[in-house]
Amino acid sequence: MIEFSNVTKVYKNGTEALKDVNLKIDKGEFVFVVGPSGAGKSTFIKLLLREETPSKGHIEVNGYDLNKIKRRHIPQFRRSLGVVFQDFRLIPKMTVYDNVAFALRVTNVTNRSIRQRVPYILNLVGLAHKARSYPEQLSGGEQQRVALARALVNNPSLLIADEPTGNVDPEMSLEIVELLNEINKYGTTIVMVTHAHDLVHKFDRRVITINHGNIVADGNGAEWGVFHER
Amino acid sequence: MRGSSFGYLLKSGFKNLWHNRLMSAASIGVLVACMMLIGGAVLLGLNVRSIVGVAGEENEVVVFLEEGLTQDEIDEVGIQIQKLGNIKEVDYVSKEEALKTEQEKDKWGGLLDGLSEEDNPLPASYRIHLVDITENKLIRTCEKLAQIDGIEEYNAPYQEATILTDIQNAVTFVGAIVVVILVVVSVMIISNTIKITVFSRSKEIYIMKLVGATDTFIRMPFMIEGILIGLIAALLAFGILWGGYSYGMSALDLSGTGWLSISMDSLVAFEDVAAFLFGVFAALGAGLGWIGSIVFVRKHLRV
What's the CATH class of domain A2-80+156-229? Predict the structure, then answer.
Protein backbone atom coordinates (compact mmCIF):
# COMPACT_ATOMS: atom_id res chain seq x y z
CA MET A 1 0.00 0.00 0.00
CA ILE A 2 2.72 2.47 1.07
CA GLU A 3 6.39 1.81 0.47
CA PHE A 4 9.35 4.15 1.06
CA SER A 5 12.72 2.85 -0.14
CA ASN A 6 15.80 4.80 0.91
CA VAL A 7 13.90 8.07 0.76
CA THR A 8 15.85 11.26 1.40
CA LYS A 9 14.34 14.72 1.14
CA VAL A 10 16.53 17.80 1.09
CA TYR A 11 14.78 21.15 0.56
CA LYS A 12 16.24 23.88 -1.59
CA ASN A 13 17.36 25.83 1.48
CA GLY A 14 19.50 22.85 2.53
CA THR A 15 17.22 21.47 5.26
CA GLU A 16 17.46 17.69 5.36
CA ALA A 17 13.94 16.69 6.40
CA LEU A 18 14.14 12.92 5.87
CA LYS A 19 17.26 10.77 5.75
CA ASP A 20 17.31 7.40 4.03
CA VAL A 21 13.89 6.32 5.28
CA ASN A 22 12.65 2.78 4.65
CA LEU A 23 9.04 2.04 5.45
CA LYS A 24 6.27 -0.32 4.52
CA ILE A 25 2.62 -0.02 5.49
CA ASP A 26 0.29 -2.80 4.39
CA LYS A 27 -3.30 -2.69 3.29
CA GLY A 28 -5.75 -2.51 6.21
CA GLU A 29 -3.22 -1.28 8.78
CA PHE A 30 -3.83 1.55 11.26
CA VAL A 31 -0.59 3.42 11.87
CA PHE A 32 0.24 6.32 14.17
CA VAL A 33 3.19 8.49 13.14
CA VAL A 34 4.63 10.45 16.07
CA GLY A 35 7.63 12.66 16.72
CA PRO A 36 8.53 16.15 17.90
CA SER A 37 8.01 19.27 15.78
CA GLY A 38 10.48 19.52 12.93
CA ALA A 39 11.12 15.77 12.99
CA GLY A 40 10.01 15.33 9.38
CA LYS A 41 6.35 14.37 9.83
CA SER A 42 5.01 17.10 7.56
CA THR A 43 7.52 16.18 4.88
CA PHE A 44 6.38 12.59 5.21
CA ILE A 45 2.77 13.66 4.53
CA LYS A 46 3.77 15.92 1.65
CA LEU A 47 5.66 13.10 0.02
CA LEU A 48 2.66 10.77 0.48
CA LEU A 49 0.40 13.31 -1.28
CA ARG A 50 2.93 13.94 -4.03
CA GLU A 51 3.05 17.60 -3.02
CA GLU A 52 6.80 17.11 -2.88
CA THR A 53 9.08 14.62 -4.62
CA PRO A 54 11.95 12.85 -2.88
CA SER A 55 15.53 14.01 -3.51
CA LYS A 56 16.66 10.42 -3.41
CA GLY A 57 14.92 7.07 -3.11
CA HIS A 58 11.63 5.66 -4.28
CA ILE A 59 8.02 6.02 -3.12
CA GLU A 60 5.01 3.92 -4.01
CA VAL A 61 1.51 4.71 -2.75
CA ASN A 62 -1.74 2.93 -3.66
CA GLY A 63 -0.01 1.25 -6.57
CA TYR A 64 1.18 4.56 -8.04
CA ASP A 65 4.92 5.03 -8.55
CA LEU A 66 5.24 8.60 -7.26
CA ASN A 67 8.68 9.05 -8.81
CA LYS A 68 7.42 8.41 -12.31
CA ILE A 69 3.80 9.58 -12.17
CA LYS A 70 2.93 12.13 -14.88
CA ARG A 71 1.60 15.52 -13.84
CA ARG A 72 -1.73 14.93 -15.49
CA HIS A 73 -2.20 11.68 -13.57
CA ILE A 74 -1.67 13.25 -10.14
CA PRO A 75 -5.37 14.21 -9.71
CA GLN A 76 -6.34 10.61 -10.40
CA PHE A 77 -3.84 9.41 -7.79
CA ARG A 78 -5.12 11.86 -5.18
CA ARG A 79 -8.69 10.71 -5.70
CA SER A 80 -7.60 7.25 -4.57
CA LEU A 81 -6.84 8.58 -1.10
CA GLY A 82 -8.54 10.76 1.50
CA VAL A 83 -6.80 13.47 3.50
CA VAL A 84 -7.68 15.24 6.74
CA PHE A 85 -5.65 18.18 8.08
CA GLN A 86 -5.20 19.84 11.45
CA ASP A 87 -6.69 23.09 10.11
CA PHE A 88 -9.60 21.25 8.39
CA ARG A 89 -9.09 23.05 5.06
CA LEU A 90 -12.75 23.44 4.23
CA ILE A 91 -13.80 25.96 1.61
CA PRO A 92 -15.39 28.77 3.68
CA LYS A 93 -17.93 29.97 1.14
CA MET A 94 -19.36 26.51 0.54
CA THR A 95 -21.93 24.82 2.77
CA VAL A 96 -21.10 21.58 4.56
CA TYR A 97 -22.98 19.70 1.86
CA ASP A 98 -21.10 21.41 -0.97
CA ASN A 99 -17.74 20.91 0.71
CA VAL A 100 -18.33 17.18 0.79
CA ALA A 101 -19.99 17.06 -2.62
CA PHE A 102 -17.01 18.93 -4.06
CA ALA A 103 -14.72 15.92 -3.66
CA LEU A 104 -17.17 13.96 -5.81
CA ARG A 105 -17.73 16.72 -8.37
CA VAL A 106 -14.06 16.82 -9.30
CA THR A 107 -14.26 13.15 -10.18
CA ASN A 108 -17.00 13.56 -12.77
CA VAL A 109 -19.59 11.73 -10.70
CA THR A 110 -23.21 12.24 -11.80
CA ASN A 111 -25.42 14.65 -9.88
CA ARG A 112 -27.67 11.75 -9.02
CA SER A 113 -25.05 9.74 -7.19
CA ILE A 114 -23.83 12.93 -5.46
CA ARG A 115 -27.33 13.38 -4.06
CA GLN A 116 -27.24 9.82 -2.75
CA ARG A 117 -23.70 9.62 -1.48
CA VAL A 118 -23.28 12.95 0.36
CA PRO A 119 -26.23 12.59 2.80
CA TYR A 120 -25.12 9.04 3.51
CA ILE A 121 -21.58 10.13 4.48
CA LEU A 122 -22.80 13.14 6.46
CA ASN A 123 -25.05 10.80 8.38
CA LEU A 124 -22.07 8.53 9.05
CA VAL A 125 -20.12 11.34 10.73
CA GLY A 126 -23.27 12.52 12.53
CA LEU A 127 -23.69 15.86 10.75
CA ALA A 128 -26.71 15.30 8.55
CA HIS A 129 -28.55 18.11 10.34
CA LYS A 130 -25.74 20.62 9.61
CA ALA A 131 -25.70 20.08 5.85
CA ARG A 132 -26.79 23.64 5.09
CA SER A 133 -24.45 25.32 7.59
CA TYR A 134 -21.21 27.05 6.61
CA PRO A 135 -17.88 25.93 8.14
CA GLU A 136 -17.56 29.09 10.28
CA GLN A 137 -20.84 28.21 12.01
CA LEU A 138 -19.45 24.88 13.26
CA SER A 139 -17.23 23.92 16.19
CA GLY A 140 -13.71 22.59 15.59
CA GLY A 141 -14.81 19.02 16.15
CA GLU A 142 -17.71 19.41 13.73
CA GLN A 143 -15.50 20.98 11.08
CA GLN A 144 -13.06 18.11 11.38
CA ARG A 145 -15.89 15.64 10.91
CA VAL A 146 -16.93 17.49 7.75
CA ALA A 147 -13.35 17.20 6.54
CA LEU A 148 -13.44 13.53 7.38
CA ALA A 149 -16.68 13.13 5.44
CA ARG A 150 -15.04 14.83 2.46
CA ALA A 151 -12.05 12.51 2.72
CA LEU A 152 -14.27 9.43 2.87
CA VAL A 153 -16.89 10.28 0.28
CA ASN A 154 -14.75 8.89 -2.55
CA ASN A 155 -14.42 5.54 -0.78
CA PRO A 156 -10.62 5.78 -0.62
CA SER A 157 -8.54 2.75 0.24
CA LEU A 158 -6.08 4.96 2.14
CA LEU A 159 -6.89 7.74 4.60
CA ILE A 160 -4.13 10.13 5.66
CA ALA A 161 -4.79 12.24 8.76
CA ASP A 162 -2.32 15.02 9.60
CA GLU A 163 -2.85 15.83 13.30
CA PRO A 164 -6.63 15.58 12.94
CA THR A 165 -7.18 16.25 16.63
CA GLY A 166 -4.79 19.22 16.90
CA ASN A 167 -7.56 21.85 16.92
CA VAL A 168 -10.25 19.78 18.60
CA ASP A 169 -11.14 19.44 22.29
CA PRO A 170 -10.11 16.16 24.01
CA GLU A 171 -13.56 14.62 24.14
CA MET A 172 -14.15 15.23 20.44
CA SER A 173 -10.62 14.00 19.67
CA LEU A 174 -11.43 10.63 21.13
CA GLU A 175 -14.61 10.49 19.09
CA ILE A 176 -12.75 11.26 15.88
CA VAL A 177 -10.13 8.57 16.43
CA GLU A 178 -12.88 6.13 17.28
CA LEU A 179 -14.51 7.05 13.99
CA LEU A 180 -11.21 6.37 12.21
CA ASN A 181 -11.02 3.08 14.03
CA GLU A 182 -14.49 2.14 12.75
CA ILE A 183 -13.51 3.07 9.22
CA ASN A 184 -10.36 0.97 9.54
CA LYS A 185 -12.48 -2.07 10.44
CA TYR A 186 -14.05 -1.91 6.99
CA GLY A 187 -10.61 -2.26 5.40
CA THR A 188 -9.44 1.33 4.86
CA THR A 189 -5.75 1.82 5.59
CA ILE A 190 -5.21 4.71 8.01
CA VAL A 191 -2.07 6.75 8.57
CA MET A 192 -2.48 9.28 11.37
CA VAL A 193 0.22 11.77 12.29
CA THR A 194 -0.32 13.00 15.84
CA HIS A 195 1.04 14.69 18.94
CA ALA A 196 -1.67 13.28 21.19
CA HIS A 197 0.24 10.65 23.16
CA ASP A 198 -2.78 9.70 25.26
CA LEU A 199 -4.60 8.63 22.11
CA VAL A 200 -1.62 6.56 20.98
CA HIS A 201 -1.63 4.84 24.36
CA LYS A 202 -5.33 4.24 24.33
CA PHE A 203 -5.50 2.71 20.86
CA ASP A 204 -2.91 0.00 20.83
CA ARG A 205 -1.77 0.20 17.22
CA ARG A 206 1.42 0.29 15.21
CA VAL A 207 3.44 3.40 16.05
CA ILE A 208 6.19 4.84 13.88
CA THR A 209 8.39 7.41 15.63
CA ILE A 210 10.31 9.91 13.51
CA ASN A 211 13.06 12.14 14.89
CA HIS A 212 15.65 14.25 13.06
CA GLY A 213 14.49 12.77 9.77
CA ASN A 214 15.02 9.18 10.84
CA ILE A 215 12.65 6.43 11.92
CA VAL A 216 13.80 5.82 15.48
CA ALA A 217 11.14 3.31 16.52
CA ASP A 218 8.50 1.15 14.86
CA GLY A 219 6.32 -1.10 17.03
CA ASN A 220 2.93 -1.46 18.65
CA GLY A 221 1.39 1.06 21.02
CA ALA A 222 2.29 -0.73 24.23
CA GLU A 223 5.97 -1.05 23.29
CA TRP A 224 6.02 2.54 22.21
CA GLY A 225 4.71 3.56 25.61
CA VAL A 226 7.66 1.85 27.26
CA PHE A 227 10.07 3.43 24.82
CA HIS A 228 8.49 6.81 25.29
CA GLU A 229 8.62 6.81 29.07
CA ARG A 230 12.26 5.87 29.18
CA MET B 1 -16.11 16.25 -19.10
CA ARG B 2 -19.70 15.46 -18.31
CA GLY B 3 -22.57 17.82 -19.01
CA SER B 4 -23.43 17.95 -15.31
CA SER B 5 -19.84 18.94 -14.47
CA PHE B 6 -19.91 21.67 -17.06
CA GLY B 7 -23.19 22.98 -15.68
CA TYR B 8 -21.68 22.99 -12.21
CA LEU B 9 -18.56 24.85 -13.37
CA LEU B 10 -20.64 27.40 -15.26
CA LYS B 11 -22.75 27.95 -12.17
CA SER B 12 -19.74 28.36 -9.91
CA GLY B 13 -18.29 30.89 -12.37
CA PHE B 14 -21.43 33.02 -12.01
CA LYS B 15 -21.45 32.44 -8.25
CA ASN B 16 -17.83 33.57 -7.90
CA LEU B 17 -18.66 36.72 -9.81
CA TRP B 18 -21.34 37.51 -7.24
CA HIS B 19 -19.36 36.37 -4.21
CA ASN B 20 -16.51 38.70 -5.17
CA ARG B 21 -18.86 41.42 -6.37
CA LEU B 22 -16.73 44.28 -5.04
CA MET B 23 -13.71 43.10 -6.98
CA SER B 24 -15.88 42.29 -10.00
CA ALA B 25 -17.40 45.76 -9.93
CA ALA B 26 -13.94 47.34 -9.69
CA SER B 27 -12.65 45.35 -12.67
CA ILE B 28 -15.74 46.10 -14.71
CA GLY B 29 -15.47 49.81 -13.89
CA VAL B 30 -11.85 50.03 -14.93
CA LEU B 31 -12.50 48.07 -18.11
CA VAL B 32 -15.48 50.26 -19.00
CA ALA B 33 -13.38 53.40 -18.57
CA CYS B 34 -10.59 52.04 -20.77
CA MET B 35 -12.99 50.82 -23.43
CA MET B 36 -14.77 54.16 -23.53
CA LEU B 37 -11.49 55.97 -24.03
CA ILE B 38 -10.52 53.55 -26.77
CA GLY B 39 -13.92 53.94 -28.40
CA GLY B 40 -13.68 57.73 -28.11
CA ALA B 41 -10.27 57.72 -29.78
CA VAL B 42 -11.55 55.50 -32.59
CA LEU B 43 -14.65 57.67 -33.17
CA LEU B 44 -12.62 60.88 -33.15
CA GLY B 45 -10.12 59.42 -35.60
CA LEU B 46 -12.80 58.18 -37.96
CA ASN B 47 -14.58 61.54 -37.91
CA VAL B 48 -11.44 63.53 -38.64
CA ARG B 49 -10.65 61.21 -41.53
CA SER B 50 -14.17 61.57 -42.83
CA ILE B 51 -14.17 65.40 -42.64
CA VAL B 52 -10.77 65.56 -44.29
CA GLY B 53 -12.09 63.26 -47.00
CA VAL B 54 -14.99 65.60 -47.73
CA ALA B 55 -12.61 68.53 -47.94
CA GLY B 56 -10.57 66.51 -50.42
CA GLU B 57 -13.51 66.09 -52.74
CA GLU B 58 -13.69 69.83 -53.25
CA ASN B 59 -10.37 69.67 -55.04
CA GLU B 60 -10.37 68.83 -58.71
CA VAL B 61 -7.92 67.85 -61.39
CA VAL B 62 -8.24 70.00 -64.52
CA VAL B 63 -7.24 68.41 -67.83
CA PHE B 64 -6.69 70.79 -70.79
CA LEU B 65 -7.26 69.30 -74.20
CA GLU B 66 -5.14 69.87 -77.31
CA GLU B 67 -6.38 72.36 -79.87
CA GLY B 68 -8.30 71.19 -82.92
CA LEU B 69 -9.71 67.93 -81.67
CA THR B 70 -12.94 66.75 -83.21
CA GLN B 71 -15.96 66.17 -81.00
CA ASP B 72 -15.44 62.39 -81.38
CA GLU B 73 -11.85 62.67 -80.22
CA ILE B 74 -12.92 64.80 -77.26
CA ASP B 75 -15.55 62.24 -76.28
CA GLU B 76 -12.93 59.49 -76.61
CA VAL B 77 -10.67 61.30 -74.11
CA GLY B 78 -13.64 61.54 -71.72
CA ILE B 79 -14.25 57.80 -72.00
CA GLN B 80 -10.55 57.09 -71.39
CA ILE B 81 -10.64 59.24 -68.24
CA GLN B 82 -13.70 57.43 -66.93
CA LYS B 83 -11.81 54.17 -67.30
CA LEU B 84 -8.91 55.28 -65.06
CA GLY B 85 -10.52 54.28 -61.80
CA ASN B 86 -10.64 56.45 -58.69
CA ILE B 87 -12.85 58.82 -60.72
CA LYS B 88 -15.92 60.19 -59.04
CA GLU B 89 -17.19 62.70 -61.57
CA VAL B 90 -16.05 64.13 -64.91
CA ASP B 91 -17.38 67.42 -66.26
CA TYR B 92 -16.65 68.62 -69.78
CA VAL B 93 -16.05 72.34 -70.23
CA SER B 94 -16.00 73.40 -73.90
CA LYS B 95 -13.93 76.28 -75.30
CA GLU B 96 -17.06 78.43 -75.51
CA GLU B 97 -18.09 77.75 -71.92
CA ALA B 98 -14.55 78.45 -70.71
CA LEU B 99 -14.49 81.80 -72.47
CA LYS B 100 -17.87 82.74 -71.12
CA THR B 101 -16.94 81.86 -67.57
CA GLU B 102 -13.67 83.72 -67.72
CA GLN B 103 -15.29 86.78 -69.26
CA GLU B 104 -17.85 86.83 -66.47
CA LYS B 105 -15.13 86.55 -63.84
CA ASP B 106 -13.55 89.63 -65.43
CA LYS B 107 -10.22 88.76 -63.93
CA TRP B 108 -8.23 89.80 -66.93
CA GLY B 109 -9.11 93.49 -66.92
CA GLY B 110 -11.18 93.39 -70.09
CA LEU B 111 -8.48 91.55 -72.01
CA LEU B 112 -10.91 88.87 -73.07
CA ASP B 113 -13.69 91.32 -73.99
CA GLY B 114 -14.76 91.27 -77.55
CA LEU B 115 -13.02 88.08 -78.42
CA SER B 116 -15.12 86.11 -80.81
CA GLU B 117 -15.39 82.34 -80.80
CA GLU B 118 -12.84 82.03 -83.60
CA ASP B 119 -10.18 83.90 -81.63
CA ASN B 120 -10.89 82.03 -78.42
CA PRO B 121 -7.46 81.24 -76.86
CA LEU B 122 -8.88 79.15 -74.08
CA PRO B 123 -8.68 75.37 -74.40
CA ALA B 124 -11.49 72.92 -73.76
CA SER B 125 -11.07 70.96 -70.55
CA TYR B 126 -12.28 68.12 -68.37
CA ARG B 127 -12.77 68.81 -64.67
CA ILE B 128 -12.28 65.62 -62.71
CA HIS B 129 -13.35 64.91 -59.12
CA LEU B 130 -11.44 62.03 -57.62
CA VAL B 131 -12.73 59.54 -55.10
CA ASP B 132 -9.48 59.49 -53.15
CA ILE B 133 -7.29 62.53 -53.26
CA THR B 134 -4.54 61.39 -50.87
CA GLU B 135 -1.07 61.87 -52.27
CA ASN B 136 -0.24 58.42 -53.57
CA LYS B 137 -3.59 57.83 -55.23
CA LEU B 138 -3.51 61.25 -56.84
CA ILE B 139 -0.05 60.72 -58.30
CA ARG B 140 -0.94 57.29 -59.62
CA THR B 141 -4.11 58.61 -61.28
CA CYS B 142 -2.21 61.50 -62.83
CA GLU B 143 0.48 59.19 -64.21
CA LYS B 144 -2.20 57.25 -66.03
CA LEU B 145 -3.82 60.49 -67.15
CA ALA B 146 -0.58 61.58 -68.83
CA GLN B 147 -0.69 58.57 -71.13
CA ILE B 148 -4.02 59.47 -72.71
CA ASP B 149 -3.71 61.01 -76.21
CA GLY B 150 -5.17 64.42 -76.84
CA ILE B 151 -4.29 65.94 -73.49
CA GLU B 152 -2.22 69.12 -73.63
CA GLU B 153 -1.53 69.35 -69.91
CA TYR B 154 -3.22 68.98 -66.53
CA ASN B 155 -3.28 70.72 -63.15
CA ALA B 156 -3.47 68.52 -60.07
CA PRO B 157 -3.83 69.84 -56.50
CA TYR B 158 -0.60 68.23 -55.37
CA GLN B 159 -0.07 70.65 -52.52
CA GLU B 160 -3.53 70.17 -51.07
CA ALA B 161 -3.17 66.44 -51.43
CA THR B 162 0.06 66.50 -49.45
CA ILE B 163 -1.52 68.49 -46.63
CA LEU B 164 -4.58 66.25 -46.47
CA THR B 165 -2.46 63.14 -46.50
CA ASP B 166 -0.33 64.54 -43.72
CA ILE B 167 -3.38 65.29 -41.59
CA GLN B 168 -4.83 61.84 -42.15
CA ASN B 169 -1.54 60.18 -41.37
CA ALA B 170 -1.11 62.23 -38.21
CA VAL B 171 -4.62 61.43 -37.00
CA THR B 172 -4.19 57.74 -37.73
CA PHE B 173 -0.77 57.66 -36.07
CA VAL B 174 -1.78 59.53 -32.91
CA GLY B 175 -5.02 57.55 -32.69
CA ALA B 176 -3.16 54.27 -33.01
CA ILE B 177 -0.69 55.26 -30.28
CA VAL B 178 -3.52 56.30 -27.94
CA VAL B 179 -5.37 53.04 -28.56
CA VAL B 180 -2.24 50.94 -28.03
CA ILE B 181 -1.43 52.73 -24.75
CA LEU B 182 -4.99 52.26 -23.51
CA VAL B 183 -5.01 48.59 -24.43
CA VAL B 184 -1.74 48.08 -22.58
CA VAL B 185 -3.13 49.93 -19.54
CA SER B 186 -6.31 47.80 -19.55
CA VAL B 187 -4.26 44.63 -19.83
CA MET B 188 -2.12 45.64 -16.85
CA ILE B 189 -5.05 46.66 -14.67
CA ILE B 190 -7.08 43.58 -15.46
CA SER B 191 -4.08 41.32 -14.93
CA ASN B 192 -3.61 42.86 -11.52
CA THR B 193 -7.25 42.40 -10.57
CA ILE B 194 -7.24 38.78 -11.64
CA LYS B 195 -3.96 38.26 -9.78
CA ILE B 196 -5.50 39.58 -6.58
CA THR B 197 -8.67 37.54 -7.05
CA VAL B 198 -6.71 34.37 -7.68
CA PHE B 199 -4.39 35.06 -4.75
CA SER B 200 -7.29 35.58 -2.37
CA ARG B 201 -8.49 32.15 -3.40
CA SER B 202 -5.13 30.38 -3.50
CA LYS B 203 -6.04 28.38 -0.39
CA GLU B 204 -9.18 27.22 -2.11
CA ILE B 205 -7.21 26.21 -5.21
CA TYR B 206 -4.79 24.29 -3.00
CA ILE B 207 -7.64 22.39 -1.35
CA MET B 208 -9.11 21.58 -4.76
CA LYS B 209 -5.75 20.19 -5.87
CA LEU B 210 -5.50 17.97 -2.79
CA VAL B 211 -8.98 16.58 -3.35
CA GLY B 212 -7.88 15.55 -6.83
CA ALA B 213 -9.31 18.26 -9.05
CA THR B 214 -7.73 18.53 -12.50
CA ASP B 215 -6.20 21.83 -13.60
CA THR B 216 -8.99 22.36 -16.14
CA PHE B 217 -11.63 21.84 -13.47
CA ILE B 218 -10.03 24.47 -11.23
CA ARG B 219 -9.43 26.92 -14.04
CA MET B 220 -12.89 26.83 -15.59
CA PRO B 221 -14.78 28.95 -13.02
CA PHE B 222 -12.02 31.57 -13.17
CA MET B 223 -12.17 31.61 -16.95
CA ILE B 224 -15.93 31.94 -17.00
CA GLU B 225 -15.73 34.69 -14.39
CA GLY B 226 -13.09 36.56 -16.41
CA ILE B 227 -15.03 36.27 -19.65
CA LEU B 228 -18.23 37.43 -17.95
CA ILE B 229 -16.50 40.49 -16.49
CA GLY B 230 -15.13 41.32 -19.92
CA LEU B 231 -18.48 40.93 -21.65
CA ILE B 232 -20.39 42.96 -19.06
CA ALA B 233 -17.81 45.74 -19.33
CA ALA B 234 -18.06 45.64 -23.14
CA LEU B 235 -21.83 45.93 -23.00
CA LEU B 236 -21.73 48.86 -20.57
CA ALA B 237 -18.98 50.75 -22.42
CA PHE B 238 -20.82 50.23 -25.70
CA GLY B 239 -24.13 51.49 -24.30
CA ILE B 240 -22.63 54.57 -22.66
CA LEU B 241 -20.62 55.45 -25.74
CA TRP B 242 -23.65 55.07 -27.98
CA GLY B 243 -25.80 57.24 -25.75
CA GLY B 244 -23.11 59.89 -25.37
CA TYR B 245 -22.28 60.02 -29.06
CA SER B 246 -25.91 60.23 -30.16
CA TYR B 247 -26.54 63.00 -27.64
CA GLY B 248 -23.51 64.91 -28.91
CA MET B 249 -24.64 64.52 -32.51
CA SER B 250 -28.17 65.78 -31.84
CA ALA B 251 -26.75 68.75 -29.91
CA LEU B 252 -24.61 69.66 -32.95
CA ASP B 253 -27.59 69.25 -35.20
CA LEU B 254 -29.71 71.64 -33.14
CA SER B 255 -27.07 74.35 -32.89
CA GLY B 256 -27.33 74.35 -36.66
CA THR B 257 -24.93 77.19 -37.48
CA GLY B 258 -21.48 77.60 -38.92
CA TRP B 259 -19.10 75.00 -40.18
CA LEU B 260 -20.20 72.47 -37.57
CA SER B 261 -23.57 71.95 -39.18
CA ILE B 262 -21.99 71.94 -42.62
CA SER B 263 -19.72 69.11 -41.64
CA MET B 264 -22.62 67.26 -39.97
CA ASP B 265 -23.17 65.27 -43.13
CA SER B 266 -19.61 64.07 -43.10
CA LEU B 267 -19.68 62.86 -39.48
CA VAL B 268 -19.68 59.14 -38.93
CA ALA B 269 -23.01 57.75 -37.71
CA PHE B 270 -22.62 55.55 -34.64
CA GLU B 271 -24.65 52.81 -36.27
CA ASP B 272 -21.96 52.50 -38.96
CA VAL B 273 -19.25 51.58 -36.47
CA ALA B 274 -21.43 49.99 -33.79
CA ALA B 275 -20.86 46.37 -34.80
CA PHE B 276 -17.13 46.96 -35.19
CA LEU B 277 -16.76 48.68 -31.82
CA PHE B 278 -18.80 46.10 -29.96
CA GLY B 279 -16.84 43.30 -31.58
CA VAL B 280 -13.56 44.89 -30.51
CA PHE B 281 -14.83 45.52 -26.98
CA ALA B 282 -16.23 42.02 -26.52
CA ALA B 283 -13.11 40.38 -27.93
CA LEU B 284 -10.86 42.57 -25.79
CA GLY B 285 -12.85 41.98 -22.60
CA ALA B 286 -13.44 38.27 -23.01
CA GLY B 287 -9.92 37.67 -24.30
CA LEU B 288 -8.37 39.51 -21.37
CA GLY B 289 -10.50 37.63 -18.86
CA TRP B 290 -9.69 34.34 -20.46
CA ILE B 291 -5.95 34.75 -20.89
CA GLY B 292 -5.59 36.46 -17.52
CA SER B 293 -7.23 33.61 -15.66
CA ILE B 294 -5.05 31.06 -17.44
CA VAL B 295 -1.81 32.92 -16.77
CA PHE B 296 -2.43 33.72 -13.12
CA VAL B 297 -4.12 30.53 -11.98
CA ARG B 298 -1.26 28.49 -13.42
CA LYS B 299 1.17 29.58 -10.70
CA HIS B 300 -1.09 28.16 -8.01
CA LEU B 301 -1.65 24.89 -9.82
CA ARG B 302 1.91 23.74 -9.19
CA VAL B 303 1.04 21.64 -6.15
Answer: alpha beta
